[in-house]
Amino acid sequence: MRLFAVLILALLVVLPARSEAQQKLRVIASFSILADVVSQVGGEHVAVATLVPAMGDAHVFQPTPSDARSVATAGLLVSHGLNFEPWLDRLVAASGFNGPRVVATAGITPRRMGAQAGHDHGHNHGHETRAGAVDDPHLWHDLQRMQAYVATIAAGLAAADPAHAEQYRQRGAAYAAELKALDDWAVAQFAPLPVAYRKAITQHDAFGYLADRFRIVLLAPQGVTTDAEASAEAVARLIRQVKRERVQALFFENIANPRLIEQIAREAKVKVGGRLYSDALSPPGGEADSFVKMYRLNITRLVAAMQRD
User: Fold this and answer.
1) Residue 252, beta-bridge partner list
2) pTM, entire model
3) 92/15 Cα distance (integer angstroms)
4) Domain covering 185-306, topology
5) 2-181 is classed in which CATH architecture?
């Protein structure tokens, strides 16, 4: 009898925690950076899962049947937009999901790239706009635009879970303020660096927003996506440019094979500056396992590599 009473008491202690966990809004985010932003805004009231995992490349992601099952049971689906996830609509159709959706870039004017940038390697991955220009989907590298991005996510969470709407709005405002402070910090990091030194090479055109913000000349052997190889002619042209302009900051990306950057560094006789995080976070516990850590790390490495004696 005493043992039975102990078991009943244990159940009474466990059940409320389990019930609370079940009340969390189940959110599916399309890729790891977005998943972290949703988690920061949602806090304890959301359970967030991502489709494209940490270190994964959303440009070439291939969904599986298990991804379709995950989407089917979501309480909210959050995507980036700007055709960054060209596979997503097919996945949603296959899953039968008809719940609420949020497109985080909705209402934000993206950076426009010239036709040359989008077509150098024979692909634009669906980003083409009028007059042959393309919309740059890598908007998370612009912390000013990201503040509106966060507000859209907070509003979407509030609409899907009205009981916690005020908490989402408060957390969204606090996180946007954190991003503004991070942007101010980044401005201060670049301030002492002469504009003439601000040149770098990355694997593909993922850092255009950051380049615009800090007046960096960024070169890339691949275009706006990673779904095609750079041509030998483009690589040779880039190597000549590296030598001519004395570019000394070369980086490989966390989502791409470093072989191409290593080739350019070897032939141009320039040292590789390390890894930048372009389209995905590191795994949990890694050096860039949150968006804020990722952005801070990228800025630190770029500034360090551009310094000259």
Assistant:
1) 275
2) 0.82
3) 34
4) Rossmann fold (3.40.50)
5) 3-Layer(aba) Sandwich (3.40)
